[in-house]
Write a structure and sequence with these properties.
Elements lengths: L9 E5 L4 H11 L3 E6 L23 H6 L3 E5 L5 H11 L4 E4 L5 H4 L4 H7 L4 E6 L14 H7 L2 H4 L3 H6 L12 H24 L4 E5 H6 L3 H10 L14 E5 L2 E6 L3 H10 L14 H6 L1 H12 L4 H11 L2 E4 L3 H5 L2 H5 L3 E6 L3 E6 L23 H8 L4 H9 L4
Parallel strand pairs: 1-2, 1-4, 2-3, 4-5, 5-6
Antiparallel strand pairs: 7-8, 8-9, 10-11
Length: about 400
């Protein structure tokens, strides 16, 4: 098999939960050798569900299992002097450090970029924090809900049909950790740019990722409209004049007749109902003005339609329609099966499971699912013993002292 795109690149991850671990997972899936460093009591994600068979267990968290495939796992307490010294030894032999500690924490530990580059002059270090390393907000504590809201998306959610149905609903975030994933992708982009620069110049550098700024990119169009056009997007305006989410007889579908020709094709597909010829819906301007009326009539019609029939039929006619898929729909998708989107991995505690894989294929540098997420401290002996030369007695003492 051809070498993977990032084969030979060594990464030391010192992160928990989602943004940092997903960032290094993306690097690992492309062939980077990633060592994940956890506190002795483990990544917080190990204590977050969903859990296999709904039984809470640090080795059965679906969140942790997914975010940490293709990684080697260590335990290490950086707050102890012995832990700091071991971390410095690990840094000597890596290309990249990814960390997500609060700003100033790594400096307090003596493990900030300025200190670590004295050990490894070509090091690339990336820090992923709520508001970045500088500015008046840098020391503000934040959970995911805080950073997601600070990126502006909460101001616009729920929009569209949900706002139409529930005017008084409070602002919400997107489901699960979609915003954290956005931060991870921005971090990977910054890291790979730094790798490219180092390959050309021989110089490493520090990559400072602000989750707020990464999330603001989700709303870059809305952000640009306000200072340049004076238009303030909100939940009421962020909706299709006609179309949106509709209930069908067996699920939901998104209908988007954005242009005139799409509307006419949708009307043809519906069998040219009498109401569609009303002057209220004669052109785009009229439909925009009377969108609520059009949607109410569409809603009556879609409730008798099957999702797949509506999806394939309207799409074939030239109107944009998409099915709203459940996790089961995705798992059974013939399209995703053909593209091998899911990879099966055997985990010593969770067993054999299917995992979503990378959303891209590279023709010359293939992806590879090599290993499941590590057990807590699974590779301590391999790395500390074989790579760093610690004896078994050393490891026993370090474990008894809570260092590993």
């Amino acid at each position: 098999m051809s070498k993977q795109a990032l084969a030979g690149l060594k990464v030391l991850e010192c992160c928990s939960m989602v943004a940092g671990p997903y960032c290094s997972k993306l690097l690992a899936d492309l062939g980077a050798d990633v060592i994940k460093v956890e506190e002795p009591d483990g990544d917080e994600a190990r204590r977050r569900g969903p859990f296999l068979h709904d039984i809470p267990h640090p080795e059965r968290s679906g969140l942790f299992l997914y975010l940490n495939t293709n990684k080697i796992g260590l335990t290490l307490d950086l707050a102890q002097n012995a832990g700091k010294q071991i971390f410095e030894q690990l840094v000597r032999d890596v290309d990249i450090v990814v960390e997500d500690k609060p700003p100033g924490k790594m400096q307090d530990l003596g493990l900030d970029y300025e200190s670590l580059k004295c050990i490894n002059p070509n090091l690339i270090m990336a820090s992923i924090t709520p508001f970045g390393q500088t500015g008046p907000y840098k020391d503000h504590k934040a959970y995911y809900i805080n950073t997601f809201a600070s990126g502006g998306e909460c101001y616009l959610l729920p929009g569209g049909d949900e706002w139409r149905r529930n005017h008084d609903r409070e602002p919400i975030k997107t489901g699960n950790y979609a915003g954290e994933v956005q931060c991870s992708i921005m971090a990977v982009a910054g890291i790979l740019l730094a790798v490219y620069y180092r390959n050309a110049s021989g110089c490493g550098q520090y990559v400072d990722i602000s989750k707020q700024e990464a999330l603001l990119n989700l709303n870059r169009v809305e952000l640009a409209r306000y200072p340049n056009q004076g238009f303030l997007e909100n939940r009421m305006t962020r909706m299709l004049p006609v179309g949106g989410l509709f209930e069908c007889s067996d699920g939901y579908a998104q209908i988007m007749p954005l242009e005139d020709h799409m509307w006419y094709k949708l009307v043809e597909f519906m069998g040219n109902p009498e109401w569609a010829s009303d002057e209220l819906f004669k052109d785009r301007a009229s439909r925009t003005e009377h969108g609520e009326r059009a949607n109410a009539l569409l809603e009556v019609w879609t409730k008798d339609q099957k999702v797949e029939d509506l999806y394939h039929g309207a799409q074939a006619e030239g109107c944009a329609v998409a099915p709203i898929c459940s996790p089961e729909d995705i798992l059974k998708s013939e399209q995703l099966k053909v593209r091998n989107f899911f990879a099966e991995l055997d985990h010593p505690e969770a067993g054999r499971l299917s995992y979503p894989f990378t959303p891209y294929k590279l023709s010359h540098t293939p992806r590879q699912a090599k290993r499941p997420a590590p057990l807590l401290g699974e590779h301590n002996q391999e790395v500390y013993g074989q790579r760093l030369g610690f004896s078994k007695d050393d490891l026993i003492r370090l474990r008894e002292a809570g260092v590993i």
